[in-house]
Design a protein that fits this description.
The complex is a heterodimer of chains A (about 110) and B (about 110).
Chain A lengths: L3 E4 L2 E4 L5 E7 L5 E8 L3 E8 L6 E2 L7 E3 L5 E6 L8 E8 L4 E3 L3 E5 L1
Chain B lengths: L3 E2 L4 E5 L4 E7 L6 E7 L6 E7 L4 E4 L2 E6 L4 E6 L8 E8 L6 E2 L3 E6 L1
Parallel strand pairs in B: 2-11
Antiparallel strand pairs in B: 1-3, 3-8, 4-5, 4-9, 6-7, 7-8, 9-10, 9-11
The chains are: A mainly beta (about 110), B mainly beta (about 110).
């Protein structure tokens, strides 16, 4: 049972490039989340989804887009990467109050 | 506006002693609280939770206390072990399955 899997684990982008981060969960959870973690800032919610085909904005959604075409997958897109998006990104899924996290994607934007 | 605050960025404790990690919140609508532990290069993992109808929840060496009037919760680890060295996050929710996380406290347990 893999739980929550994030790909890729590491990525370096140049300013203006685009990329998609993939999150996959095999627990049949309805809720999925994308967070970013920055030094001294804790985990901040970017976007979340309460079910297949639905998405909603979190605390820091600007510069990101998401899609949830399949229940098990939640994609986070950066259309034009900026240095301010250098961060560690975590995906999570939940059925009830308990969130299960992936191992994270470390993204550097130069 | 930080709704969930962990004012101690770091804490060092001797092995076998008690570790106390603190968390303060400002939103009185929060009614469910969780603690997560995070090791380097891994995602956060659930540790223990408490709902607002309780003031204490215990699981082995870990106990969480909730003081609603003070809007304060604390995590006690007794006895502390070197494997407990990690970053600990508290998180709070108003019952919407969305959580606000604190900034984390790095615990170092010295052997």
């Amino acid at each position: 049972n893999a739980g929550v899997t994030q790909t890729p684990k590491f990525r370096v982008l140049k300013t203006g490039q685009s990329m998609t981060l993939l999150c996959a969960q095999d627990m049949n959870h309805e809720y999925m989340y994308w967070y970013r973690q920055d030094p001294g800032m804790g985990l901040r919610l970017i976007h979340y989804s309460v079910g297949e085909g639905t998405t909603a904005k979190g605390e820091v959604p600007d510069g990101y887009n998401v899609s949830r075409l399949k229940k098990q997958n939640f994609l986070l897109g950066l259309e034009s990467a900026a240095p301010s998006q250098t961060s560690v990104y975590f995906c999570a899924s939940s059925y009830g109050f308990l969130q299960y996290f992936g191992a994270g994607t470390r993204l550097s934007v130069l | 506006d930080q709704q969930v605050k962990q004012n101690s960025p770091s804490l060092s404790v001797q092995e076998g002693r008690i570790s106390i990690l603190n968390c303060d919140y400002t939103n009185s609508m929060f009614d469910y609280f969780l603690w997560y532990k995070k090791y380097p290069a891994e995602g956060p993992t659930f540790l223990i939770s408490i709902s607002s109808i309780k003031d204490k929840n215990e699981d082995g060496r870990f106990t969480v206390f909730l003081n609603k009037s003070a809007k304060h919760l604390s995590l006690h680890i007794v006895p502390s072990q070197p494997g407990d060295s990690a970053v600990y996050f508290c998180a709070a929710s108003p019952g919407t399955y969305k959580y606000i996380f604190g900034t984390g406290t790095r615990l170092k347990v010295l052997a």
